[in-house]
Amino acid sequence: MSSRQDTSTKRAALPRLVCVWALLLALGTATADGRTKVSINAADRGVREVVSELAKQAGVTVRYLPGVGGLVSVRVNAVPFTEALTTVLSAVGYGWRAEGGVFVVGRFSAQPDDQTATTSTLPLRYADAATLARSFGWLDVSALGQAGSVLDLRLLLPPGLSGPPRPTADGKGLQVSGSTAAVADFRFLAQSFDRPPAAIAYRWLVAKASPILVDTLRVAWAQGPMAFGRSGEGREVLYSATDLEAQWERLSAAPEGLSILGRGTVTGRDLEVLQVASQGPGTPKLALAGRLEAGLALRLYAKCTIHVDGLPVEVIVDGGKLPPEEGALVVSRQKPGGAGPETVLMMIVPTVTVPEG
Predict the structure, then answer these.
(1) Radius of gyration of the chain (CA)
(2) How far apart are CA 47 and CA 43, in angstroms?
(3) Could you give the strand order of the β-sheet that contains 166-167, starting from the edge strand earlier in sequence?
(4) CATH: 3.55.50.30, 3.30.565.10, 3.40.1440.60, 3.40.109.10. Which one for 2-106?
(5) pLDDT for position 269
(6) How many Å apart are CA 281 and CA 263, to the nearest integer?
(7) 53-79, pLDDT tens digit by residue?
(8) Tens digits of per-residue pLDDT, 159-209?
(9) Cβ count within 10 A of residue 270
(10) Does domain 117-191 have CATH number 3.30.360?
(11) Is 53 left (phi over 0), alpha (psi -120 to 50) or beta?
């Protein structure tokens, strides 16, 4: 009886021993992968590209946390993968940890706050170094003559910097000094502003419309003063921002009851775009400005000045906040008993395209 129990116990233990052996084998394989020697010589290459190449050499899997990006210059020759990974990531303020045989790359709150003083250079691909440095508080005599305002980003600077970042001599990057932790935090911050510029295209149309046509546009009367759309004295404003693509197709075809006074497209690749379109005497003079904000919301400003039937009409879009796929349809009509053209409409459909980078 005892012999049977021993045999049964050994058989029951066998699967557990196999599982333990498989786990140890897997751990041994992961350790061996981490110790596989790798080499790379990279100059201003994307950190993801560099890490992925090293991972391919070592035969390991890498997963990136959101936000990992930036450029790195590094040279390693025949060193263990984990050592090479640490070298590459420390240059751009990231760390790594192993999770079930996968190397996870990102910024971790458990990283120590290294107070060692250091100076680092951050190359930029898209952002203008002098403009970005000015937004972080850098200023010298040569910068005083530069026109245009910049965003004030000084409150975003991490504590521990010895001063505001400054442009490099060649104007292609930023130089920053301070504690290692502060410099790493700043590098992460600056990379969020070093993105390909968004392209904004505004299709616009200004027309004189009949009251019957306006009734089919599904626009709503303003209840009190409107911050989004408004017109001059003695006029009422209607506004709509729904299904504008369909409205654009319909109005561009100049249906009965609509007389197009002007239309066109203006484009820009800046944080703020300001264009003025005019096609000669008696045609609309249109000023457009668009500002991209967090989450790719577009704050739109527009002002149209035109003379219709010999009388001036001014229609304004005053800072409406829109998703990129929407736009503005503002209708201005004379109040009952007033003089001048009955109805003028202005339609603007902005499209924002952000390149991959």
Answers:
(1) 31
(2) 10
(3) 117-123, 173-179, 166-167
(4) 3.55.50.30
(5) 66
(6) 15
(7) 999 999 999 988 877 888 888 888 898
(8) 889 999 999 999 899 999 998 888 888 887 887 778 777 778 889 999 999
(9) 13
(10) no
(11) alpha
